[in-house]
Each structure stands twice: as C-alpha cells, then as structure tokens.
Fold this sequence. Notes:
The complex is a heterodimer of chains A (238) and B (81). Helices cover 69% and strands 0% of the residues of chain A. Chain A has 238 residues and is an all-alpha fold. Chain A has one domain (2-235). In chain A, helix 4 (65-86) runs antiparallel to helix 7, helix 5 packs across helix 6 and helix 6 packs across helix 9 (211-235). Chain B has one domain (3-75). The mean pLDDT of chain B is 87.
Amino acid sequence: MKRILAVSLTGVLIFILLLGVMELPRFGLPDNPANNEVMRYYIEKATEDTGALNIVTGIILDYRAFDTFVEASVLFTAAAAVIMILEQNGRNKVDAGLLGESLILKEISRVIIPFIHIFGLYIIFFGHLSPGGGFAGGTIIGASFILYYTVNGSDRSREKFSYNRLMGIMSTAIVVYGVLKGYSFITGGSHLESVQLPLGVPGNILSGGLLLPLNIIVGIVVAITMYIFYVLFEKGEI
Amino acid sequence: MNMQTFSIIMLLFLIGASISVSMIKNLLGAVIVFAVYSLIMAILWQQLNVPDLAITEAAVGAGITTLLFVLTLKRIRGVKK
C-alpha cells in the first residue's frame, strides 16, 4: 500500500513538473525573455560603468555586488556550521602529517607552493582584466594551504593557520565587504550613486574602483573556507 | 583537424567518463574518473569561450572536489588496498 502511494505520488509530481517544462520558451529563439535589454546594456556599458575589461567581474562585483556578498556569507556560514558540528577539543595527538616524514614530498612542496601562490594571486589581482576572479583564485590558494597541511602535518600548520587568526581574517573580510557594499541594502536597491573609488584607465591593475578590493576579499573568504573544510573533515579540529 | 572535431572528440570522452563514473565499482577509481570528467568539462568551457568558468571548473571541480571525495573515502574506509 505504501509503495503504491509512493509510486503514484512520484508520477503525479513528474506530471506536474513536465507541465511546467512545456510552458518554457523554446531554446535559442531571439525573442526569448532572456534576450532583453539588460544583457545588451551590460555588454555595451559594463566597461564604461565599472572600469572592468572582464565584463563578468564587472557584473558580479558591481551591478550584482550584493548577491556576491550573500554568496560569500553562505561560505562563511558553511564554515562556521562545519566548525560547530565537527570541532572536538582536547584531542591533541602528535601528528607528523598524512604521509609521514617524506623528504621528497617536503622538498618538492617547498618548491611548488610559491608558484601556486603566485598563480592564485595573479588570478585574483587580474580578476577585472582577464578571466578569473576571487572565487577561482581563492580556491587555488586554498588548495596550496591544503598541500602545506598534508605534507607538514597539523602541528606545524597550526602555528601558521591558527583558528583565531583564520576566523579573525575571514570575519574582518566579510565585515569590510558589508561596509563597502551594504549601501544598496540600506537605500533599497539603488547602489549606483554610492561611494566609488576613481575608476582609472581600464586595463591598468589599479582601475575599476572597488572591484580589486572586493576580489581580494572574496579570495580570502574562499581560500580560508576551503582550508577549514579540509582540515575539519580530516582531523576534527583546526 | 579543426576545432569542431576536437570538441566532438572531447564530448565523446565526456559521455564516456560520465557513464563510467556510475558504472565503476571501485570507489577511488570512480573519483579519479570524476576528476577527468571535470577536466574535460573545463576544456569544453574554454571551447565555448567561457574562460571564467573554465578556470573555476578546473580549480573547484578537478581540484577541491576530488580532494574532499578522497578524504571522505579515507574516513569511511572505502579505499580498497
């Protein structure tokens, strides 16, 4: 009886969802609702309005900056929740690293980690000029932190990435983002008149107003979140 | 060989990888094939002129996701020696 009920409920749900799919416009037609004046405005005016050569960064960190703020807050909340659930105090075993005392791994990682850092920093700092941005660059830097943790063990990485330091940096980054872009929340959505740094010449690194600091902030939050996820899943404490 | 042929070959690899992820019995092997899937997807994003997504896919899909999957397998002892 239960099984029949489940099957019929699933069938009804599939039927309703397929009815919704039939209402969708056909794929790729020029007069679809998605092809409206907003897209054309972005493509024509994004560089002029925001000073970013990479229109994607111009959209997500200027026109849609508040959405990105909430995305960064989602990462922060996820990291905080994982810490709340998984952290166990008072289990301080001596740990020489996942792979023990491997001389080859230590030397190779010592050579390779600076290159990963430079690449991640390049992606973050050129986010408004070339492909990339805070999310991708932050993930790469977080991966290099994870490599350091994996090779050197939790005791040595705890000296560099202590819990208080990581959470302090991450909370400060979120608060700074909120102060810089919270204006539109207070004024009910109109953020185009808010305080702006000078846009500068498009193409220079110091251009695009607030895009560069916002990219750095998002990169910090993403990198620390990735590191915290890995360490907490691995060991249950930071 | 033009770029369209290249894209078609990559798409065939993508389909093969996505089917074999669900078919492979060895969990660690499935995770590795999933990383291959992400890398092919990054190449395809690049072919579709979306370099932003390509970078993010390569970093998150092939890097961090694989790390977390392998870590989870280690925790639940899913890796067969």
